[in-house]
Write a structure and sequence with these properties.
This protein is an all-alpha fold. The protein has eleven helices and no strands. The termini are far apart.
Length: about 190
């Protein structure tokens, strides 16, 4: 009896479920297809970037961003475009593009944050640079780059006149990364800001 009374509602609910599943599958198919096309287009721009032709590479990355900006390759194109702008000396444009990149890995994302910090240094935003370098050091958390990012943070704090924060960063390098070359030479920086 209940089924007979609610037959229309049950049918509408089933149709809605089928439509949602079909839309999800279609969107996933579209995203996968778009990402494959974007990866092909980004390759030539990466080649130009590696060759140091930042203006031509920027054009290629911007084309990928405009057409495939919501894909993984489009996201990577934002990072590359920001690096191109940075290398061309356009720090304001670089900041906008580097901030648009979203990643959570512990290699590329920290490197992009470091590039963002470098742009802030060039723009005399030393406090912004220092906090950005510190953010980059956390996910990197390895002896290859973390001490470097932390040293950059300390130098930026010094440039901002915040010796107390610089001292904390330098001591962190000595405490956590002493076995690295930066860690073994950090005492002179500590003495300088004490």
């Amino acid at each position: 009896l209940w089924l007979e009374k609610n037959q229309k509602n049950i049918m509408y609910a089933l149709i809605a479920i089928v439509l949602v599943v079909a839309a999800g599958w279609g969107w996933n198919y579209f995203k996968t297809n778009s990402n494959e096309k974007a990866e092909k287009e980004i390759y030539s721009a990466q080649f130009l970037f590696d060759a140091g032709d930042y203006e031509q590479a920027l054009e290629g990355f911007e084309a990928v961003i405009s057409e495939y900006g919501s894909t993984n390759a489009g996201n990577l194109a934002k990072a590359y475009a920001g690096l191109c702008q940075k290398n061309l000396g356009n720090d304001q444009e670089a900041v906008a593009l580097l901030k648009a990149y979203s990643g959570s890995d512990n290699v590329i994302a920290p490197a992009i944050l470091c590039a963002l910090g470098d742009c802030y240094v060039n723009m005399d935003n030393n406090v912004g640079a220092a906090t950005t370098f510190e953010k980059a050091a956390k996910p990197a958390n390895n002896a290859e780059v973390a001490p470097l990012y932390l040293k950059k943070a300390g130098l930026a704090y010094e440039a901002a006149g915040d010796n107390a924060s610089a001292l904390k960063v330098y001591q962190s390098i000595r405490d956590n990364w002493f076995e690295t070359s930066i860690g073994q030479s950090i005492d002179k920086y500590i003495v300088r800001v004490q």
